[in-house]
Design goal:
The protein has 198 residues and is α/β, with parallel strands linked by helices. 35% of the residues lie in helices and 21% in strands. The chain has a four-stranded mixed sheet. A four-stranded mixed sheet has the order 7-6-5-8, covered by helices on one side. The N and C termini lie far apart (70 Å). This is RNA-directed DNA polymerase.
Length: 198
Amino acid sequence: MLSRHPTAQYIQHSIHLLELDEIKTHQNLDNLGNSKYDSKINDVLVLKKKKIFKIVVPFSLRRRVLQNAHEQFGYLGTQKLINLITPQYYWPHINQDISVFVKHCGVCQLNKKKRQKRYGLLQTVPPTDRPFEYLSIDTVGGFNYYNSTKKYLHLVIDHATRHVWVFPSKSETTETYANSNNISFGNIGQGKGFLINF
């Protein structure tokens, strides 16, 4: 092969994650010469995909490619690491391997953007002097495994007296909450507010 071959020059100058001699050695050790990759440039197995020659990385060097990319270019995340490695290197399931590598990298997980909405700020419960001024309502579920038709318990707690009322129910809809409050506190009157946990 001529040294002026454009692909040969591309391979010589594009290797930045591994040394060319190291790739040759490991390709021979992993017996990649007998596989479906029959194109060689400068004794390096390559695969032509979409008119681009990509270096075939043997199994023994894949982790080192990922680690070197991480060390040289920083903790980029899955998509940027794919965009960095895949134009020059190839191995079967490369995208999955990069994704798994990034998922198990502690620094990448800390730097990853949060996709969830921000949590609401916790606030203190307002002080109260009178009974039934502030009531907290919460639901405990998961009782359907005990051969019961009632799957939920609605807990109502008075902040002044710390008294607790418990109401079993079949569902956790708004109507169920309203009915349990009307049954228990209908004759007492309306309080200042309810604190409901969802």
